[in-house]
Structure formats: structure tokens, C-alpha cells
Amino acid sequence: MSNPTRREFLKTGALSTLLLGSGIAVAGGCEAIRQRGKTKNVIFLVSDGMSAGTLTLADLMLRRHHGRSSNWVRLLEEGKVNRGLMDMASADRIVTDSAAAAASWGCGHRVNNGALNIGPDGTHHKPVLPVFRDAGKATGLVTTTEITHATPAGFAANVESRAMGETIAEQYLERQIDILLGGGHNHYDPEQREDGRDLYEEHRQSGYYIAKTKSELMNGNATEGQVLGVFTNGHLPYTLDHQNTPELLENVPTLAEMTDLAIGNLSDHPDGFILQVEGGRVDHAAHSNDLGGLIYDQIAFDDAVGVAMAFAESRDDTLVIITTDHGNANPGLNSAPDEHFDSIREFRHTNDWIRRGLDTDSSLSQIQERIEYATGYEIPSEQAEFYRQAARGTYRAAYSSMNSTAAVLGQILANHTHVNWVGGSHTADYVELATFGPGSEALEGFVINTQLFDVMTEAAGVAEFV
Ligand SMILES: [Zn+2]
Questions:
Q1: CA of 131 to the centre of ligand 1 (A)
Q2: Cα separations in angstroms, 34 against 29, 70, 89
Q3: 287 CA distance to ligand 1 centroid (A)?
Q4: What confidence score (pLDDT) does residue 429 get?
Q5: Ligand 1: distance of its center to the CA of 328 in Å?
Q6: Residue 329 C-alpha to ligand 1 middle, in angstroms?
Q7: How deeply is 307 buried, as exposed, middle or buried, from its count of CB atoms within 10 A (0-12, 13-18, 19+)?
Q8: Could you give the angle at the alpha carbon of 248 between the alpha carbons of 244 and 252, nearest 5°?
Q9: Pseudo-torsion of CA 337, 338, 339, 344, nearest 10°?
Q10: 113, 93 in Cβ contact below 8 A?
């Protein structure tokens, strides 16, 4: 008979007891068993597509202009977290996408890019939120993207393709995920769903409270019971645009506000909870070489880290995992006088906002004016011409990934910020991992993405429900 795998081993309580009693050390197993059951709650925070440079830039912005470090770096400074470097490869690629990345944590298996908790051989793996639910714990997903987007879905859904947003929304309801907060009205609205189903009404009948605005989320009705909060069609706005658009500020909650609400609600549950929190648009900003989008969304994510840690540090039963699913575009500050970096704090809007107001017919002066309004930079007409060429599809960079309007605008602004980018897609870099609380001891050093599933389920004592 071959040795049992770690998961099989933990499923068999009798064997665990026997080995504990005999004091035999089983590789990787004993520490987890000692922690078993001590972890009542798990909070998993993901800054999607956060390169190491993104963590640095957000921390520098906070230190220079807000007189404090980021929560993430503070935890490292104070020695409160275990730090790891994690390999996020998927089953079929060195460079993962967000679906395969979230699934590696969500079910403990590497799947192909684009798939959610269905292996290359077609095997459906039970995701971690249903595992915790079957063990009697409450469950929640909070994000700044559509709530059906790849990262939250990786913790709760089984679909062949991440593009199946309508099916993912149905699965959340069937699987009774208790708290769902984010964007994605399009996947719940009968007018926009292909099958015409009114998923809001189905949630209401199932007992969920529905919130579609910030005030509906904050009016006290969402503090207990099941909650579906959907605040925008598509993704929530970038933080920089959110902060500078009064209507959005009034109607859309921040990630930290949603996280606070979710933790307050879920922590009333007597048997504990698991909550996934995603700063999902850090990834989108990186894809678009959009520095204002990137830094302020990373800071908004870090605010949610602060909320989660305030809860976890006040008790001894909560495992917190803070990480990212992959690098993206690897931004970095090149050597230049510091005032270039400092000028970023004058930004009013994202590059996304700039690009949305321009098209192939925009004049050079329109391009210059819109960039100046959003960033404060006066750009020369020869650079506006590069942008116009990109909009018309005629711009040619030596590296063809840098031909898009997004990449060209990123390069133009880099002349002022001196923050530049290596491309517009996910990168292979091993990622930062910071963990706190019971069970986190197992996550120091070099970590393989699938280990997080085992650590969560073993630490919480729910492995028998896998
Ligand atoms: Zn991405």
C-alpha cells in the first residue's frame, strides 16, 4: 500500500490521532494537525495582478504624502506576518490567468488557464467556499470587479470557462454563498441575461437582502443574513475616478466599506466564516499601463487589508492570507528626481478616463487638453501625435505589444512620472504572500499555489468536507 497523500491522511481522523499519539513526524502534516480547529475564520485578500513594483509604488505614495506606510508593508515591518514567495503557474502555462490562479487556491489543483475548478481531464473539484459551507461556516465574496469575475468565482464556482458569468451567478445562488458584493448587474438583470431570468428576484425569494446602492448597503439591513450587493453594470469604477466623480462616490461603496460590512455580518455566525476580498481592478490598470488607476486601486485594496487585520489582530482564531494571483506589466520607478514621482498625487482621473473621452477623430489639442486635465501634464504635440496614430492603428513600437492606445499613453506619461512598464499582460514573477494567524506558519518561504487550499482546509478542520 502506498503512503496516503496529505489530504487523504487528514481525512482519516483515526490515523491522525494514532500518529499524533505516537509523536511520529509526518512531513508537512504535524504542524497543520496541531493547528487543526484553532482557525475559526479565514479571510483571503487578493490584489489581482499586483507586481512587486505595484506594492512598492503604493507604499511610497502613502509614505511621502500620507505620513504612513501601507498596511501590507507595515505588517512586514512589524514582523506580524509570515512572508512567502509563491509560484502561481497553471496546469498549461508558466504565466497564469486569474481563473486558473484562483482555482489553484480554491480547489487545490492546477487547472488550465480560463477554467474554474475543472481539471484538464474534466474532473470537477469542490471549491473552498462550498467546503466551508458544508462544515457549517458562513461564506462571502467581495470584489471591485463583476462579482462573477474569475477571482471570486475561483473560490465558489465550477465552469469550463471564466466567460460564463451568467452560470457563475446561478451557481452562487445554488451554493448559497451568504455575502456577494461587487459589480456585475448585467449578470443578474433579466433585461441583460440571455435566459431572461431575474436573478435578483430569485435571490430575494431565497431570503437574500438586495442592495444596489451604497446607502442600501449601509442602512442597517445588510448587517445580518444573506446579502447580494451589486452596485454597477460591469466592474466598479477605478478608485481615482470614483473619488473624483460625485455621483459614483454617492452610489458605490469602497472596497474597505464592503469588506467591513461583510466581516461584521459574517462574524456573527457562531461557527465562523470564510471571506474572499479582491482588489480586482489593480489588474485592469496594469493591463492598461494606467498608473493613476493602479496606485489608487492598490491603496484602496490596502485599506481593505487594514479592515481585515483590525478584525484578525483583535483575536486569535482568524487566518488572513494577503497575496496576488500574478504580476502584471511589472511597473517600476526609474531613477529621476523625486518630484516626478510626487506629481502623481495631482492626478484627477485615470488613463482609462482619458481614453474614454478620445477617439480616432480627436485633434491633437483635444488629446493634449484631456491629458492635462486628468494628470496636470502639458504634453508636446509630437507626443499627442503618437497617441493619435495609436488610436488610428498606425503606431509601430519595436515591441508590438506596445502599439495600443493604452501602452502609448502609458509611455507618454512615463516621460513625466518615470514609471514605465514591460508590456501589457500578466507576468511569470513569483508573487508576494503574507499570512497571519493560526495555520500561517506553514506558508513561509517558497510556496506552491495549490498549498493554500490545503492550509485553509486543514487549519480550519474542514478537510473532511473536501
Ligand atoms: Zn488580467
A1: 27
A2: 9, 32, 30
A3: 7
A4: 98
A5: 7
A6: 10
A7: buried
A8: 125
A9: 130
A10: yes
Res 323: pLDDT: 98
Per-residue confidence (pLDDT) for residue 38, from 0 to 100: 86
Distance 76 CA to ligand 1 centre (A): 26
Distance 340 CA to ligand 1 centre (A): 28
**pLDDT for position 442:** 92
Centroid of ligand 1 to alpha carbon of 19 (angstroms): 44
Looking only at the bridges linking them, the beta strands covering 332-333 and 419-420 are antiparallel
C-alpha 37 – ligand 1 centre gap (Å)? 35
CA of 286 to the centre of ligand 1 (A): 8
Instruction: Say how many Å lie between the CA of residue 294 and the centre of ligand 1.
Output: 13
Q: Residues 6 or more apart from 118 whose CB is under 8 A from it?
A: 111, 124, 125, 158, 159, 160
Domains and CATH numbers, the chain: 1-35 (no CATH), 39-331+444-465 (3.40.720.10), 344-419 (no CATH)
Å from CA of 51 to ligand 1 middle: 12
The segments of the chain whose pLDDT lies below 70 read 1-37
Give 98 Cα–ligand 1 centroid separation in angstroms: 6
pLDDT digits (tens, 9 = 90+) for 107-132: 999 999 999 999 999 999 999 999 99
| CA gap 226, 386 in Å, rounded | 51
b/e per residue 452-463 (b: at least 16 CB within 10 A): bbbbbbbbbbbb
pLDDT digits over 8-64, tens only? Answer: 434 443 334 333 333 333 344 444 444 445 899 999 999 999 999 999 999 999 999
In this structure, are residues 404 and 387 in contact, taking their beta carbons and an 8 Å threshold?
no
Q: How far is the CA of 3 from the centre of ligand 1 (A)?
A: 39
In this structure, the number of other CB atoms found within 10 A of the CB of residue 448 comes to 13
Quick: pLDDT tens for 316-355. Answer: 999 999 999 999 999 999 999 999 999 999 999 999 999 9
Ligand 1 centroid – CA 184 distance (Å): 17
CA distances from 123 to 59, 158, 164 (A): 41, 10, 18
Buried b (16+ CB within 10 A) or exposed e, 197-210: eebbeebeeeebbb
What CA–CA distance (Å, rounded) separates 83 from 80?
Answer: 9
Distance CA 81, CA 375 (A): 36
The answer to whether 42 touches 455, Cβ cutoff 8 Å, is no
The pLDDT score that the predictor gives to residue 15 is: 37
Q: Find the 364 Cα to ligand 1 centroid distance in Å.
A: 31
pLDDT for 37: 52
